[in-house]
Amino acid sequence: MKGHWAKYALTGAFIALLAGCSSKPTDRGQQYIDGKLEQPLGLVNQPNAKGRPVNGKDFSDQVVQIQTASSGLFGRNNGTYSAVQNWLLSGADTRQLNQFGLNAYQMEGTDNYGNVQFTGYYTPVVEARYTRQGEFQYPIYRMPPRPRGQKLPSRASIYNGGLDDRYIIAYSNSLIDNFMMDVQGSGYVDFGDGRPLRFFGYGGKNGWAYHSIGKELIDRGEVKREDMSMQAIRQWAQEHSPQEVRSVLETNQSFVFFKPEEYVPVRGASAVPLIAKASVASDRSLIPAGTVLLAEVPQLNEKGKFNGKYEMRLMVALDVGGAIKGQHFDIYQGVGPDAAHLAGFYNHYGRVWVLKAAPGTGQPLFSNPQNGNNGSLLLGSN
Fold it and tell me: DSSP string of 111-178?
């Protein structure tokens, strides 16, 4: 979905700066128990994993959403969905996938040792009013006309009143909340009048280059690199004056505009409503829409640190993002502050297996064109 494309383009640099530097670090959930892997997706007899998926119902709900919203996507993957559902009903033992007609393809990870990168995203809820009043002083804008080949005003110029007031669609009580919705690319807005929340979808950008606020704060010595997260940015903003916050935000001249809609479910690029922690954004040149993933996801404590434990989850690739490339998934965490808390911390690693109804060893895993890529990965057994 266009809003999500913007979000990932904006957060790519921020995500990159969180990565560890050690050759074989383990502080973000990295494992090396399967040795070095030789191909992006390798067929295995059974996943070298313990435990059963903890979100079987959420996965089933996500499949229902796919069936309702996209008959084509459902039809192309129904064989796999049905096999996975039968496997779940029979206890979901990873040693028995073959008995249910499922092949498992292990992903090689970002380091060729199976460590696939997980980040997180969410849908914010912003408090706002229709008119400027009291604490509600920070405009949210719809997309103005953009002359061909020209940029719209920069963030700093917009903050200084560089756009006509007729493009204002709401006033929030927090500049940093506006910025977080900007980064996510969409959000819900609560006008405080008892009516259902309005969805502010992605409406466009001003055409200026993105500059990472996280990197800016690190370079200024305001936040340590190892402590950087969305929560750290928000905490820094709470401890500094509105003028200081604005000054830092203005170093990112890129600006996102929004389009108000009635309350609608959050949808990914596949136009399917997303179920929290049962859907991910993927690189479609490697992982096509509708693909089922069995993921060993590292668990975090309340401070966002890896606690040494993992849980198995079934998820479906239903979204995309400019910064989501290769062996990297962005897990949709849901709506509101709790989802924001977890999404802001996630930049960790776990193992992932693509599940596919078995076509026979050596046959193409994916054979339908995906975004101009032939999508065909001929995989042998290993």
Answer: TSSSBEEEEEEEE-EEEEESS-BTTB-EEEEPPPP--TT-PPPPHHHHHTT-S-GGGEEEEES-HHHH
Task: Assign 73 to helix, strand or coil.
Answer: helix
How far apart CA 295 and CA 160 sit, in angstroms, is 46
User: Distance of CA 30 to CAs 115, 263, 300, 308, Å?
Assistant: 6, 39, 13, 10
Confidence of residue 233 (pLDDT cuts 50, 70, 90): very high
Residue written as tokens 């997980």? Answer: 118
What's 318's DSSP letter?
E
> Which phi and psi angles does 78 have, rounded to 5°?
-65, -35
The span from the CA of 295 to the CA of 318, in Å, is 15
How far is it, in rounded angstroms, from Cα 304 to Cα 347?
9
Distance in angstroms (rounded) separating the CA atoms of residues 170 and 130: 5
Instruction: Name 253's bridge partners.
Output: none
Instruction: Please state which of the ranges 2-16, 106-120, 154-168, 327-341 shows the lowest mean pLDDT.
Output: 2-16
Per DSSP, the three-state class of 319 is strand
Q: Determine whether 251 is exposed, middle or buried from the number of CB atoms within 10 Å of its CB (0-12, 13-18, 19+).
A: middle
Distance CA 82, CA 53 (A): 16
Structure tokens at 80: 């796999």
Instruction: Give whole-number Cα distances, 372 to 2, 32, 238, 288, 375, in Å.
Output: 18, 34, 45, 11, 8
Domains in the chain (CATH in brackets) are 2-121+269-357 (2.40.40.10), 124-261 (2.40.240.50)
Q: Residue 201: what are its φ and ψ, rounded to 5°?
A: -85, 170
How many other C-beta atoms lie within 10 A of the C-beta of residue 82?
A: 14
Across the chain, mean pLDDT equals: 88
CA distance 324 to 26: 22
